[in-house]
Amino acid sequence: MNFTSWLLQTKITYMITRKRNEFGRPIKFSDFNASVVKDAYIECTAYPDKNFTIQQREKDIGLQVVPKINDITTQTRWTYPKNASTQYQPREFSEEVKEELGQSKSLAEFLNNTSVSVELALQQNEIMNTFVDDWRYLAEEEGTYGDKSDTYLKEYQSFTDLHNLMEKTITCVSWHPTIQGLIAVSVAVRLTFEDRIHFSGKLLLQPSLILFWSFSDPIHPQLMLESPDDIYCFQFCPSDPNIIAGGCINGQIVMWDITAHADRIENTKAGGTRSKKAMLKPMFLLEPGSNKEAMYIRHCAVSSIENGHKKVITDIHWLSNTFEINRMGSVFENRSEICCQLITCSADCTICIWDVRSQKTVTPQPAEKKKEENVEIPYDIPSTFLHLDLAWKPLAKIKLSKGETTLDHCPTKISLNEVHLLYKTPEKALVQSAVPNATEVKLYSNLETGLGNPLKPIEDFSTKFFVGTEEGEVIYTDWKMERDPETGRLTTKKPVNLYAVHDGAVHTIQRSPFYKDIVLTVGGWNVALWKEGVLIGPLLQTCCTPKRYTSGHWSLTRPGVFYIGREDGYIDIWDLLEKTHEPAQSQNICITMITYIKPWAFSAKQQFVAIADYYGTLHILEVPWSLSHPSTNEVTSVSHYFEREVKHLEYREQRKKIREQEKMELDLDMEEKKKTKTYQKSKEQIEAELKLDFESYLELEKATLINLGLLRASEQMSYINM
Question: Which of 69, 327, 638, 709 is the most buried (most CB within 10 A)?
C-alpha cells in the first residue's frame, strides 16, 4: 500500500483536551474581533503541490432540473457609417385579386363580426384614457386628505444667538436663494421708544446685526452683517444673492456685498439629512479664543439720513430686472438686465424708489482733482456701492394723501405686481444653480455709468399696487406722478380704492405664488383675500379672533394653503379646499408672539417653514406631506373657488343697488305725502260729518234687522222714532 492509497483510506481524527478542574464549569461564549487580537487566527491558503497527485474517487453532487443555458458573446464589427436612401414601389394586389376578395363571403362575415367590437373599442379610447393608473390617483387623494396622522408641523431645528447679552427679537427672515440650509435673520432690541432714548448710550456699544445660520451649526452664526442701527427688513438681490439691502429703524437704507465671503458659506455643510461625520468648519466661526473681528462684515454703503426716510423702514423690495422707473413713475425697459432699483415704505407716510446706480452723468475729471478726492478705503469694505455711501438719495417719493385733510396714510407693507416673478420654486432654484456664479461674473461692477442714456418706454404696464397702512386700511393706488395744474409740482394720484377691513396695523400683504392677482392681507384680528381688478371688496374676510394676528405667508407648493401667526405663539393653517370659515388646524409653536413666517422648498420631497418669535428664537419646522404636496386638480379647484366668490360679490352688489333704489322710492313717497296740503276743519263740520256717519249706521242696522226677521212692521215706526 503506497502513501496515496493510505491517505485516502485513513480518517483524520482530532483530540481535544481540557483540564480536570475545569469540568462542569459553565461555558460562556462571546464575540470578539479576530483581527484585533494577536495570533487569534492563522490563515492557511491553498496552493498546488506538484509532489502529490491525488485522484478523487468519491464525489457528492446535487442536481436540480434547469433549462439549458448557453453563454454566447459576440463583437460587432464597426464599419464606417454611410448615409443611404432607397425608394421602393409598394406591393399591391392585382385587379383580379381585389375583385375576388371583394366578393368573398368569408371576408364579409369577418368584417361584420368584428366591426361592432372595433367601433366599441374606438369609442372607449375616445371617452377615457385606458393607460391611466386609477389606483395611483386614488392613493394620492387618500394620502392628501384622508391621512390625518401626518398633518402637524414637526420641529426640525432651532437657532438662538447665545453670545449676545441684549434681549433681542427677530424682525425679518429670509432664506438664501442658492445655498440650501442657509437662512438669514435680522434682530432688534426689545425696547419701547422711551426705553430706547433712555438706553441710547448703551445701544451705541451694541452692534446691530443680520445673522446667517446654517443647518450644520445651530450655535455659531456663519456670518454677521453689521449695520448702523437695528434692521427691520432686508432682502437678497434676485440678480446676485451676494448683494443684500436692508432698512434701518432710523430710516436709512444699508447695502452689503458678501462676495468675498461667498466661498466660506458655500463650503458649510447643509442638507435635510443630519450627518455626524466630521466636516471642515469655516475659519470665521465664533468660538472661544477665535478672532471675533472676522465674524463681522461691514456695510459698503448707507443712504443719506437727511434725504431719506425719517422713521423706521417697514418694508423693502427689489424691483424686477425687466423694467425700471424714472422720477415721474413711468416704466421703461431695464437696459442693465439686473435688479438696480428698490422700493421702500416707512412710518413717515412716504414710499421711496431708490436706484443703486449713480444719478449723475460721469464727466472726465483732471488727474489732480482725482488725487485730491481719492479717499483710502478699508481693506475689508468692498467698493461696489462706494458712490452711494452717505450720498444716496431716493429717485422718487410717493405720498398717500387722505384727500380732504392735510394728513397722509402711513404705509406698513406694499405688494407690487411683478413681485411674484421673484419667487424661488425648487425648479427655479435648480435652474439658478446652473447659472455661473455671481463672483465670476461681476454684475454690479459698472454701476457708476449714470442715468443719462435714453430709455425705451414699456406700453400696457400696470403701475398699480397694494399698500397696507398702520390704521388697518388696504389701499389700491398708482405710483405714477401727475403735475398739479395750479402749482406745477409733481403730486401722487389719488388712491383708486380704499378699504377699511382690518382693525389693526397690516403686518402682511403678499401675492399668491400661483395667482398673480390674488393678494393675502393680515392685520389686527382678521385676515382678508383680495383679487386685483375686483373693486367691490375682499373675496374672503374672516371674523375677528380672540388673539391678534401678527404675520402670514402663502404656501409655496399648495395654492389653497397659507400660514397665519398669532400673538399667543400659535400658528393657524388655512386650507381653502377644506374650510373657508375657520382654520383647518392650529398648532402651538412657542410661548410668545410669532413675528415672522417664511417657508422654503428644500427639495421636491422636503419642505421647511421658518417661524421667528419675539424672544429671538428661530424655529425650523418640517412641513408634512399633506401640507406640501397638492392634489391633482388643486390649482383649478382653488381658481374656481375664487371665481365663485367674485360672482357672489357681484350678486351682493346688485342686490345692494336694488335695495338702495327701493329705499329711495319709499323716501320719495313719504316726502310726497308730507307735501300734500291738509286743511283744518271747524267744530260744526266735524259734528255734521259724525251725524251723517251715525245716520248711515242706523240705516244699515235697520236693513240688517229686517232681513233677519228680527224687526216687525209694527215696530219699525217706534224704532225710527227712537
Answer: 638
The predicted pLDDT at position 405 comes to: 67
SS3 301: strand
DSSP reduced 3-state for 531: strand
Strands across the sheet containing 341-346: 313-318, 341-346, 350-355, 396-399
User: 486 and 471 in contact (C-beta within 8 Å)?
Assistant: no
Which pLDDT belongs to residue 678?
53
Contact 719, 703 (CB under 8 A): no
Which H/E stretch holds residue 18?
none
Q: Which residues contact 93 (CB under 8 A, 6 or more apart)?
A: 101
Given a contact cutoff of 8 angstroms between Cβ atoms, the answer to whether 374 and 386 are in contact is no
d(CA 221, CA 213): 5
pLDDT confidence tier of residue 623, bands split at 50, 70 and 90: very high
pLDDT of 86 > 70? The answer is: yes
- Per residue in 500-510, pLDDT (tens digit) is 999 999 999 99
DSSP-based three-state secondary structure for 353: strand
Q: Is 24 left (phi over 0), alpha (psi -120 to 50) or beta?
A: left
Q: From its phi and psi, is residue 695 left (phi > 0), alpha (psi between -120 and 50) or beta?
A: alpha
For residue 24, the surrounding DSSP H or E stretch is none
Q: pLDDT: is 478 or 455 the higher one?
A: 478
In b/e form, how buried is each residue of 6-38, taking b as 16+ CB within 10 angstroms? Answer: eeeeeeeeeeeeeeeeeeeeeeeeeeeeeeeee
Interatomic CA distance for residues 350 and 492, integer angstroms? 11
* DSSP character string of 209-264: EEEEEETTBSSS-SEEEEESS-EEEEEE-SS-TTEEEEEETTS-EEEEE-GGGHHH
Q: What is the pLDDT of residue 144?
A: 43
> Is the pLDDT reported for residue 291 higher than 60?
no
How far CA 586 is from CA of 178, 564, 589, 607, in Å, comes to 31, 9, 10, 19
Q: What are 566's three cell numbers?
A: 398669532
Of 598, 633, 715, the closest CA to residue 172 belongs to 598
- Please give the DSSP secondary-structure letter assigned to residue 31: -
Query: CA torsion 640→646→650→653, rounded to 10°?
Result: 140
Dig out the grid coordinates for 26 from the structure: 459553565
Distance of alpha carbon 632 from alpha carbon 628, whole angstroms? 13
Q: How confident is the model at residue 680 (pLDDT cuts 50, 70, 90)?
A: low
Q: Where are the beta strands (DSSP E) in 100-195?
A: 154-159, 168-175, 182-189
Q: For residues 551 and 505, what is the distance between their CA atoms, to the nearest angstrom?
A: 11
Select from 342, 295, 340 the least CA-distant residue to 315: 342
Note whether 631 and 145 are within 8 A (CB).
Answer: yes
Report which residue type is found at 41: Y
Q: Does residue 642 register a pLDDT over 90?
A: yes
| H/E element, 67 | none
The answer to whether 626 and 143 have CB atoms below 8 angstroms apart is yes
Q: Which segments within 576-676 are labelled E, that is strand?
A: 585-588, 594-601, 607-613, 618-622
The answer to whether 631 touches 141, Cβ cutoff 8 Å, is yes
Provide the b/e sequence for 563-573 (b: ≥16 CB within 10 Å): bbbbbebbbbb
The pLDDT of residue 379 is 55
504 within 8 A of 524, measured Cβ to Cβ: yes
C-alpha cell at 349: 407716510
